[in-house]
Amino acid sequence: MSDRLAQGGGQTRGQTPGQTPQDQRLFIGGEWVEPDGGHYEVINPATEGVVGLAPEASREQVHAAAGAAREAFDSWSRTTPEERATVLDRAASIMQRDFAAYAELAQAESGATTGTARGMQVAVSVARFRRYAKGALEPVEAALPPQINEAGPMGKAGVVGALTVRQPVGVVTCITSYNNPWANPAGKVAPALAMGNTVVVKPAPQDPLSVYRMAAALEEAGAPPGVVNVVSGARPEVGEAAVDSRDVDMVSFTGSTSVGQRIAEVCGRDMKRQLMELGGKGAALVLDDADLDSAVAGIGTTYAFYSGQICTAPTRVIAHRAIYDELIEKLKGYIGFMKVGDPREKGTIVGPVISAAHRDRIESYVELGRKEGARVVAGGERPAGPGLDRGFYVAPTLLADCTNDMRVVREEIFGPVVVVVPFEDEEEGIALANDSDYGLLDYVWSGDVARAFRVARRLRAGGVGVNTIGRNMEAPFGGFKKSGVGRDVGSYALHAYSELQSIVWPG
Fold it and tell me: Residue ranges of region Disordered (predicted)?
């Protein structure tokens, strides 16, 4: 075991006192608890070594965590906004203090490149805790115009005042994604706590150790016992218990649409609130007057960013016939500059995907694309070279001459694979972009900004990037259709983790 741990690039920094990856415990009610189900191995996707051992909770322990959150809710929900802001801000400072160790752990667990682990995982987590420390201080009350009522069955004539108040939902189960073990849970936990909720966090089984470091930071920052609880497990029963517990009032989930549908069915039995960030198959609509270098730079991030394991990626390119061939050649050339390899090495752009099973799934889609008639322009083979004999690497792949009825076009692959579909005119391009079960983020590239905005308004997606893949982190984020339910980010996340109450009185 020690040899495999050494291969994994794991480390013991960032652990709670007296803990190592080998004896990681659950965090329930302010206590570090031995798991009923023992431990399972967390594998480094780049080396296939063992990063550490993660605890396997029992169903009873998950329900105990929800019970602890329920017990803590009354007092935490009645703390002042300033008290909650202080805890969140302190937690951010602790994460910043231990930044290097956290980034190293995140990289070992998720296979992210060094730049991604530092800049897009831990740094974003710190920023989100800072943002919602301020968010805790945002007003929760809003006055409504008074209403003048005439005398009638409801009472005497008079003026009735009204006020809306945002109240915490209660106990929130946060089920997080494997592609970002810091930013994703931070985007759930921080606004939920800022609003006065308590949380049970169920991290993705592939990389849960980072989430325990986040819990330790919150504990050190002064979060009272039971306000934050973390339970992990590789078995489906752990996530199921985190959803079906009667102590849970809301479920916030990031992951696949199929799992989100099952969660929604369970939540529906007790009318639990839901926030769902689900699958995506982002359309990149490249019009005939587009700046192709800009479009290629944006689309090319699909290959590099998280090795394509991100639901917001522009994976489905809808290209005008006038620029189709040139765009294909530029995308092919872009792949040629991408180094695939060890994410810890300088110059690596494309690291591994999360697991052998996921690598096999991506490769099966590429083979399916061949059978469906797509032309493999680049990639399509497992990458070879020094150091690539171990690890779950997938070559960036470009599939051209696709049609909208192909499964590689319609289904989320969640890997470094881009499919390209040609179109003849603007109306057809819009129709092709909208012909999808998904609607998370779409993109439009055009040299005519007015035209681009006009087209963007017609796309059935929760967000549209115009000549950019950039995000405004105060803009609401979420999907149309099967890409999700609800919106978060910025103040919209505070709204998502609250209930709206109205109070009226005689004027």
Answer: 1-23
Marked catalytic residue, from 174, 267, 311, 402: 311
Instruction: Give residue 88's identity as a one-letter amino acid code.
Output: L
Over the stretch 252-287, which tens digit does the pLDDT of each residue have? 999 999 999 999 999 999 999 999 999 999 999 999
pTM of the predicted model as reported, rounded to 2 decimal places: 0.94
Over the stretch 355-383, which tens digit does the pLDDT of each residue have?
Answer: 999 999 999 999 999 999 999 999 988 99
CA distances from 43 to 52, 348, 355 (A): 8, 20, 8
Residue range 148-159: average pLDDT?
85
Judge whether 406 and 419 are in contact, CB under 8 Å.
Answer: yes
- The letter for the amino acid at 201 is V
Active site residue 326: no
15 DSSP 8-state letter: P
In the three-class reduction of DSSP (H, G, I as helix; E, B as strand; rest coil), residue 500 is classed as strand
Sorted by where each starts, the structural domains of the chain and their CATH numbers stand as: 2-278+485-503 (3.40.605.10), 283-473 (3.40.309.10)
Spot the catalytic one: 56, 277, 363, 412.
277
The span from the CA of 380 to the CA of 370, in Å, is: 9
- CA torsion angle for 416, 419, 420, 423 (degrees, to 10)? -140
What is the rounded distance in angstroms from the CA atom of residue 469 to the CA atom of residue 282? 11
